[in-house]
């Protein structure tokens, strides 16, 4: 999303001579005060203009019957267009309305969210071409096998999500991103070259493993490199990346309506973002939290200074030290303790939110929407599915805007309320 801001600047040509009134001011308790003002004319040079005012003040102190001027001061108003000083002040005032603290972190967050782009891409890659794939690999009409080919992706994602955290803690976030691209690239290549359904299933399974690792790694990495103030907004890039990947594959898949072999090209194209992540992570920073966790405090300090600014270094390091001390002193919590009365609330609510979202049926829509639209009489199911993905993107962009303004709880309650009402309307 690109935001464009436009501004019109008014100008003027000349200011007439300012004059003081000739009559002396009246006496008030021995002190005469006169305020004289003149308003200069203005000319229109563009579609808008403004009026320049100049005032002169004269103060008189009365020591006799006739007042005598003792002080005279002119206040000059600078030309806001031609004055260098005024322009500098205007620029600073305008800049103060914009908060650019997120900019240093943004390239690193974008690189990480490219992994979520692949999630969306592979999530929708079977949406349109499934019939062509089934026909070419000789399982057309076998709905159970068709569903298995699609769902194998999720089986691999489940395994990857379990193992991803351990890997990220051992070798670091950046190297985990790069290592994780191996099953993604291999699985995509197997899918693109498959000549039977078994190879396709293996390829989808490997891709799922890579996606599962990314699913937990991307939000962790972004939250650890982003300043606290911007974690909510930058964290929304995870979902935005998924939506963009889904939109991309659905639009790129439109030719599959006419070309039954186009699905192989879709898989080959899916390797491009994996290569970009490998290259991008060579230039991305490591998580300062992970660096502090393994004792590399100097590197953690450099990353914080680079991304958060000098003013945040001490407070951030103190937070990391406190977290490290807490981790050292606290005993490891078992699964039984996690579900105890003291701890159960947060994991139960968090897990329930994810689970209930899946029960809303969104995955079924994303996997088979093209077939559904075709059955409903829509001529181009892939294009119609792309509009569904655009609606998903609009929701993610709304979260990006409202997350840090309205809070997580209000956003969740609002979105789930909307889902309930819309699902009821479909009955």
CATH topology of the domain at 106-286 and 371-426, anyone? Growth Hormone, Chain: A
Fourth CATH level, the homologous superfamily of the domain at 106-286 and 371-426: MFS general substrate transporter like domains
Judged by helices, strands and strand pairing, the structural class is: alpha+beta
As a whole number of angstroms, the C-alpha radius of gyration is: 32 Å
Mean pLDDT: 75
Largest sheet descriptor: 4 strands, antiparallel
CATH architecture of the domain at 106-286 and 371-426: Up-down Bundle
What does this structure look like?
Helix content is 63%, strand content 7%. Helix 2 runs antiparallel to helix 6 and helix 5 runs antiparallel to helix 10. The protein is globular. It is of the alpha+beta class and 427 residues long. The protein has a four-stranded antiparallel sheet with strand order 1-2-3-4, with no helix packed on it. The N terminus is likely disordered. It has 18 helices and four strands. The chain starts with 26 loop residues before the first strand and ends with a helix. It has a domain of 237 residues: Up-down Bundle (Growth Hormone, Chain: A), CATH 1.20.1250.
Question: What can be said about this structure in brief?
Answer:
This protein is an alpha+beta fold and 427 residues long. It is built from 18 helices and 4 strands.
Set out the fold topology:
Layout: E1 27-28, E2 31-39, E3 53-61, E4 68-75, H1 84-96, H2 106-124, H3 130-136, H4 143-171, H5 173-193, H6 197-225, H7 231-235, H8 237-252, H9 262-269, H10 272-280, H11 288-293, H12 297-308, H13 313-329, H14 335-338, H15 345-359, H16 362-375, H17 381-406, H18 408-426
Antiparallel strand pairs: 1-2, 2-3, 3-4
Helix pairs in contact: 2-6, 2-8, 2-10, 4-5, 4-6, 5-6, 5-9, 5-10, 8-17, 16-17, 17-18
